[in-house]
Specification:
The chain has 328 residues and is of the alpha/beta class. The chain contains 14 helices and 7 strands. It has helices at residues 10-22, 26-33, 37-47, 57-71, 82-92, 98-108, 119-128, 133-140, 156-159, 173-176, 213-224, 246-253, 269-281, 293-304, and strands at 183-189, 192-197, 203-207, 234-237, 256-259, 307-311, 320-324.
């Protein structure tokens, strides 16, 4: 069982002072406060006066606050210091990264630890800075210019619509083994959806007018209906909000839909690899909504008609063979 420890409050110190003045024992006071006897014993021993052997709640509280201030780690990158100015100038004017600044400080002050910091300390100083133009200018000087730091949280909209039974861990093993065609992986790229068949790596591109769930429903239905029914067995997708209509999509196409875990792109490896191939023809940042479905079909045919190297057997074997992707 996890124990949550709380520091003594001013009221509890007052009780200790009163009971201690009456001559009550440590265990009696501890039972009264519902505290450990060792907690009360340390508090009294730490704060009583040696001459008169008395305990005063006000003096004990003041000593406690002094100790708390002393145990807080002192910040190094503070405005007005030479170290802060060095970090600020190299970051904003010279556009150095925090890693480069930290490495230079280590070489400049190999023996003086007060004059150097690690890159994580620089990041913490930037994002802990009060709001304003100075903070924004320091964030803009970073490579990625993120307004906040840390792992992006997955919103409820991205996870709440996925029932437990449709998680990828419950997907049949035969799909993972790629023995039979008809099992697809899908993803959204700006202005279009791409679907790739897991066994043959056959690619289907769907032009979309938007990125809503309704657009996904209409686009997937239109393109997948053109395929034979036996080639529409399952679809593995990420947890994007465009798939909130997955129940209706599964009914329209008569296929099973599985959802990969958040932040796990390797669970859709064929799809991620296809995205890299598509970037050769469709550079990142390009708005695919400007392309017609005919143009997307042409691009898909280019990829479907060229030779591709695929693993033979289980993923543990390092054998490779060259196969031609044949359009279905």
């Amino acid at each position: 069982m996890k124990k949550n420890y709380k520091h003594l409050s001013a009221e509890e110190r007052a009780v200790i002072m009163i009971e201690h003045g009456k001559g009550s024992g440590i265990r009696t006071i501890a039972r009264l406060l519902r505290r450990s006897a060792s907690t009360v014993s340390r508090e009294v021993a730490r704060n009583r006066e040696a001459a008169v052997s008395s305990y005063h709640a006000r003096d004990a509280g003041a000593s406690y606050r002094i100790r708390r201030r002393r145990c807080v780690r002192r910040r190094k990158v503070v405005a007005g210091t030479a170290l802060y100015q060095h970090v600020h100038d190299h970051l904003i004017y010279w556009r150095w990264s925090p890693q480069q600044i930290a490495a230079r400080l280590r070489s400049m002050h190999p023996e003086d630890t007060d004059q150097r910091v690690c890159h994580e300390t620089i990041y913490a100083a930037i994002y802990a800075h009060p709001r304003g133009g100075l903070k924004q200018s320091m964030i803009d000087a970073l490579r990625q210019e993120k307004p906040t730091r840390g792992r992006r949280r997955t919103s409820l909209a991205q996870t709440g619509f996925v029932p437990e039974q449709l998680r990828i861990v419950h997907r049949p093993e035969e799909i993972a083994l790629r023995r039979w065609p008809g099992h697809w992986e899908g993803d959204l790229i700006k202005g279009a959806f791409n679907l790739v068949e897991r066994k043959t790596r056959y690619l289907v591109l769907c032009r979309m007018d938007g990125c809503t769930a309704k657009d996904a429903l209409e686009g997937f239905t239109r393109q997948m209906k053109a395929l034979p029914a036996f080639l529409r067995q399952s679809l593995t997708y990420d947890r994007g909000t465009e798939m909130t209509c997955h129940v209706e999509l599964a009914e329209r196409l008569n296929l099973d839909i599985w959802f990969a875990d958040p932040h796990a792109p390797w669970q859709r490896g064929s799809n991620e690899n296809t995205n890299g191939l598509l970037r050769q023809l469709l550079p990142k940042g390009m708005d695919l909504s400007t392309l017609s479905q005919t143009q997307l079909n042409y691009i898909a045919n280019l990829l479907n008609g060229r030779p591709a190297r695929r693993s033979a057997g289980t993923p543990l074997k390092k054998r490779w063979r060259r196969n031609w992707k044949k359009p279905i």
